[in-house]
Write a structure and sequence with these properties.
The protein is mainly α. Helix content is 41%, strand content 5%. The chain is built from six helices and three strands; from the N terminus they run E-E-E-H-H-H-H-H-H. Helix 4 packs across helix 5 (125-131).
């Protein structure tokens, strides 16, 4: 959360959140737009982090290894626990990535733009092959009811 510039993951500037990009993702978008729902999520996450891990620079601090971030398998486990706690069906990190792409498609973003945002260099071909046709329903980022941080503060 302490990125100092656009080459540092976690840096926020002009309503853009800059991301880590591996060598294989060079040439794809290194940031995402911070829309109102993401802004609300970031603010809730910061409040939680400041209460739980005020000294950590990581977006997802390790609860067991001070000064380190959660390993990707830890994120999977945390997502599983959160879904159980919130009485939601099982969700996966890959499923969240799919939801991200489908929300953007439902809101009219071009497949090639979505591809660049999630690290594909296919020009959108893989988006079409993976997600199929765009459904005639506009998806939203936030639930209709209370958000997770309102249910389990």
């Amino acid at each position: 959360m302490d990125g100092k510039g656009p080459s540092d993951p976690g840096w926020i500037h002009d309503d853009h959140l800059f991301l880590y990009r591996s060598e294989t993702h060079k040439g794809t978008a290194s940031f995402i737009d911070i829309h109102p729902a993401l802004k609300e999520t970031i603010l809730a996450h910061r409040a939680w982090k400041m209460e739980q891990y005020p000294e950590s620079p990581w977006w997802f601090p390790s609860p067991t290894k001070e000064g380190e971030c959660v390993h990707d398998s830890g994120l999977k486990q945390a997502l599983r626990r959160a879904c159980k706690s919130l009485k939601l069906p099982h969700r996966t990190v890959h499923g969240l990535r799919s939801y991200f792409g489908n929300v953007l498609r439902s809101q009219g973003k071009a497949d090639w733009q979505i591809a660049l945002q999630i690290g594909h260099k296919s020009g959108g071909k893989l988006i079409v092959e993976t997600y199929g046709e765009v459904l005639p329903v506009k998806l939203e980022w936030m639930p209709k009811g209370k958000s997770a941080w309102q249910i389990c503060p």
